[in-house]
């Protein structure tokens, strides 16, 4: 009987816990995107002439390093969710 109750609790609790973790990771990614958007906006506002973001040909890593060198980001944001762009509500 006790094993049956624990099994049922496990079946219900584990997916719910995983869902909370996924929502937390999605929230962290959303925050990182907001920071990246703001840093890019500030970088561009400081030099409205054609800059590295418009000329193309540079990798994402180089563009992120430009934002870090300009002290608009402290470090390269790392995505928390690895399963695509789906963000749970």
Main β sheet profile: none
Strand content: under 5%
- Our count of helices gives 3
Briefly note the structural class of the backbone: mainly alpha
What is the count of distinct domains?
1
H-E order = HHH
Report the strand count: 0
User: Overall mean pLDDT score?
Assistant: 82
What ranges have pLDDT less than 50 throughout 5 or more consecutive residues?
Answer: none
Could you give the distance between the termini? Answer: 36 Å
Task: Kindly describe this structure.
It is a single chain. It contains three helices and no strands. The chain has 89 residues and is mostly helical. The protein has one domain (2-69). The two termini are 36 Å apart. The model has no long low-confidence stretch (mean pLDDT 82).
Brief descriptors of the model:
89 residues; mainly alpha; 0% strand
Fold topology:
Layout: H1 2-46, H2 52-55, H3 60-69
Question: TL;DR of this structure?
Answer:
By secondary structure, the chain is mostly helical. The protein has helices at 2-46, 52-55, 60-69.
């Amino acid at each position: 009987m006790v094993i049956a109750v624990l099994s049922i609790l496990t079946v219900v609790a584990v997916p719910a816990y995983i869902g909370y973790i996924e929502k937390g990771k999605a929230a962290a990614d959303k925050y990182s995107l907001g920071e990246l958007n703001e840093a890019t906006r500030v970088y561009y506002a400081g030099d409205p002439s054609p800059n590295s973001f418009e000329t193309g040909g540079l990798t994402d890593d180089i563009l992120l390093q430009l934002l870090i060198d300009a002290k608009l980001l402290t470090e390269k944001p790392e995505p928390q969710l690895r399963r695509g762009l789906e963000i749970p509500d």
